[in-house]
Amino acid sequence: MTQNFKGRDIISIRDLSKQDILTILDVAKKLEDKPMPNLMKEKIMATLFFEPSTRTRLSFVSAMERLGGKVLGFENTEVTSVKKGETTWDTIKMIEQYADIIVQRHPIEGAARLAAEASSIPVINGGDGANQHPTQTLLDLYTIKKEKGKLDNLNIGFVGDLKYGRTVHSLCIAMSHFRTKLYFIAPDALQMPKSYLEDLDKKGIPYVIEKDLLKAAKDLDVIYMTRIQKERFPDPVEYNKLKGVYQIDKSLLNHTKKDVKILHPLPRVDEIKKELDDTENAAYFRQAGNGIPVRQAIIALVTGMI
Amino acid sequence: MAKEKLTKEIKIPAIKNGTVIDHIPSRVTLKIIRLVDPQEFEHTISLALNLKSKKIGKKGVIKLSNRFLTKEEVSKVGILAPEATVSIIKDYKIKEKIHVKVSDMIEKIVKCSNPNCITNIEKVKTRFNIVTEHPLKIRCAYCERTMSRDDIKLN
Q: Are residues A113 and A181 in the same domain?
């Protein structure tokens, strides 16, 4: 099964079948249980960060270095030829000579697909504008599987900014491979875009649209929190009215299942109170840590080293 | 029925040679006529809007004298009006009737509606996958923006 991955690009969660996803999660588990510090020895990963993203970049660098590989790259187009007007295509044609795998972060949507078309070595999308960030989705899935022991028969609640939240959209697509029920908990102005709901209808995945987190809380196995940005609201009065509803603290746990797990793609601002951090329910820091084995699995699979 | 047919014929005279595009939903008829660049075109173009149609409610018809559509233009008609028929007329007779349809993959001819899509920023040939045919929904292969027929702009 792992042979299917050699030479592949990881650009969008839509490109991955259910089996692909399960293979990646399986390899990640093996690498977490039994680290392979020499697996990527003599291999080089190029990290092309056309916009800064410290956490994503450090997670990829850590993943590669813990597999014994080397990393080169940049995190600022000010120092590259892009500033001089070089196209994405040309940048990639040059970088592919220097490395065995490329991780790219780019502010323009679709730049990752273009890079993959230009490149003869595997490209991993580390985020392209508001479009895709597939490794985040895979680490979200890995976290759910690890925390709940399964991906089927779960009630997953997405909370906050569901309209603009890239991580929510991708995770929603990925979860539709499994037998789940999804709860979309947000104010009307920030609800899930219709196109995603239509996709769920087509696949026969049940979902609930809800404004009030407390009403849905008792059903949920996983709460996936996201940040609500003030600037998304056309009316600041509306924002002030609603912001408290989507901020959670320990009192929420009086309304939930005892073993509910709380995830968040981070960074958080004030939507999860710090007092929740030391509860068993808070899975968000473990979730960030899960980025390492998941990214290791992807690196090892697409380079054909595992 | 016969009376209605007669009225239609009076409104849109038959052409000797050229192309008839029929069964166009009225709201996209003007978009389709732009495909042939009417200002630059020297022969007659006849156009009728809001004709009664059993199939699609209100339809438009376009008749182009001495003008035949390229394969690319037929594809564009297919994207804007998959219900349409394109007939090639020679000597007042229908020589060929093409039922246009949307192909699985649309290349080059459609512009992505997302201003932050790489295809609108660098010189990249656009490419779209069909999400659903009825109603038509297409997804940009690059930025993954989904567009319905009303959002579609042709290149």
A: no
